[in-house]
């Protein structure tokens, strides 16, 4: 299949692009490099540095059969202070992409949605039919796109799947085409921040909240390895019929607290994480755990890689990168 991967210079986009190439697909990556890295685009992909909103004049020339759409602004906290950038980039950009796909007869899309569409729920694990209550503009933009996909599928015969990720971690090492992992310029995620703290380049890990109504007082999240996530994308590319839009959670189905993640980091690295306990971070729900039954039923998908493997792969990726010069000339990987 000839697949367009938007955002293929980012963390998850580059892993999925690399996996698609490893499976023998032809991959075209578009990415505006606003947060991605050109050297993260897998060597086997054709790369165009451009925004999805600018695709229309060229999409018809590329003979694309399906789109995997990652390109988005994705920082929950930033979205609360810059909602215009999130609505314009994520929603307006995606509508432009969908209209270009219609104009050029591209009939299949797999969309990178998020557990942030659910917000705080009373019942765990969260099923896809739970009421959407996004607690940030970021989550609201992902929900808006999910709603648009339902309408586009019904009216225009699009085959669409929205994959709602829970907490993605880990890295993907290919045998011959590189190592792909998480390297955000502004890092907000727990595992890379904890690894940076262990490596001595990020100060202490700020632990946001120890007074949650959870067994150890810290937030519980559902962590999923990026390799398992990529496998779900491959499956979604051949699932569903024209006119159908499926919304599918991608999570392990069980939760780990922040302290349990820090224990896994200590086990993998052999070093206790220096921690500074602090107040809660705005907008963090106490518990977010996915029901992954629908992913099993619809995609035949079952995650296999555990939290220790996620941390171990992220640690190896970090150490692998440490040998390379940083793009800004510094050697700080925090
Ligand atoms: N945390 C810390 N210190 C840090 C970073 C995180 O204590 O330095 C805590 C957070 O407060 C939270 C947990 O670790 O309790 C996980 O936080 P992450 O930032 O790693 O992940 P989130 O659960 O906040 O966010 C993830 C995705 C988002 C998505 C969201 C859905 O990264 O894209 O799940 O709720 F929107």
Automatic annotation (TrEMBL):
EC nos: 5.1.3.2
Cofactor(s) needed by this chain: NAD(+)
Pathway(s) of this molecule: Carbohydrate metabolism; galactose metabolism
Pfam families tied to this protein: Epimerase
CDD domains linked to this entry: UDP_G4E_1_SDR_e (cd05247)
Keyword tags: Carbohydrate metabolism, Isomerase, NAD
Single Gene Ontology MF annotation: UDP-glucose 4-epimerase activity
Alphabetical GO biological process terms: galactose catabolic process via UDP-galactose, Leloir pathway
UniProt catalytic activity: UDP-alpha-D-glucose = UDP-alpha-D-galactose
InterPro entries in alphabetical order: Epimerase_deHydtase (IPR001509), NAD(P)-bd_dom_sf (IPR036291), SDR_fam (IPR002347), UDP_G4E (IPR005886)
Family annotation (Gene3D superfamilies): NAD(P)-binding Rossmann-like Domain, UDP-galactose 4-epimerase, domain 1
UniProt keyword Metal-binding present: no
Subunit structure as annotated in this protein's UniProt entry: Homodimer.
PANTHER family: UDP-ARABINOSE 4-EPIMERASE 1, UDP-GLUCOSE 4-EPIMERASE
Family designation: Belongs to the NAD(P)-dependent epimerase/dehydratase family.
Protein name per its UniProtKB record: UDP-glucose 4-epimerase
Native source organism of the sequence: Jatrophihabitans endophyticus
């Amino acid at each position: 299949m000839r697949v367009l991967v938007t955002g293929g210079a980012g963390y998850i986009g580059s892993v999925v692009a690399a996996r698609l190439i490893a499976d023998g697909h032809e991959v075209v990556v578009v990415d505006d490099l606003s947060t991605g890295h050109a050297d993260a685009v897998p060597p086997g992909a054709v790369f165009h540095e451009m925004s999805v909103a600018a695709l229309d004049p060229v999409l018809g020339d590329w003979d694309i059969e399906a789109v995997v759409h990652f390109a988005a602004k994705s920082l929950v906290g930033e979205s609360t202070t810059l909602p215009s950038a999130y609505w314009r980039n994520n929603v307006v950009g995606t509508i432009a992409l969908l209209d270009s796909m219609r104009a050029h007869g591209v009939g299949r899309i797999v969309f990178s949605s998020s557990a942030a569409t659910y917000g705080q729920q009373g019942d765990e694990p969260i099923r896809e039919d739970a009421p959407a209550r996004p607690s940030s503009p970021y989550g609201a933009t992902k929900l808006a796109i999910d709603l648009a996909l339902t309408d586009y599928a019904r009216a225009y015969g699009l085959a669409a799947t929205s994959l709602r990720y829970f907490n993605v971690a880990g890295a993907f090492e290919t045998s011959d085409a590189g190592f792909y992992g998480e390297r955000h310029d502004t890092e907000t995620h727990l595992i890379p921040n904890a690894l940076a703290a262990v490596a001595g380049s990020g100060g202490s890990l700020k632990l946001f909240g120890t007074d949650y109504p959870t067994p150890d007082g810290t937030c519980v999240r559902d962590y999923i390895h990026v390799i398992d996530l990529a496998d779900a994308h491959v499956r979604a590319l051949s699932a569903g019929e024209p006119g159908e839009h499926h919304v599918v959670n991608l999570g392990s189905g069980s939760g780990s607290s922040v302290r349990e993640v820090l224990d896994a980091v200590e086990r993998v690295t052999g070093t206790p994480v220096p921690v500074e306990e602090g107040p809660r971070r705005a907008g963090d729900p106490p518990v977010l755990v996915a029901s992954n039954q629908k992913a099993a039923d619809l995609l035949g998908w079952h995650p296999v890689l555990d939290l220790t493997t996620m941390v171990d792969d992220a640690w190896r990726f970090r150490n692998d990168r440490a040998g390379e010069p940083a793009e800004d000339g510094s050697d700080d990987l925090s």
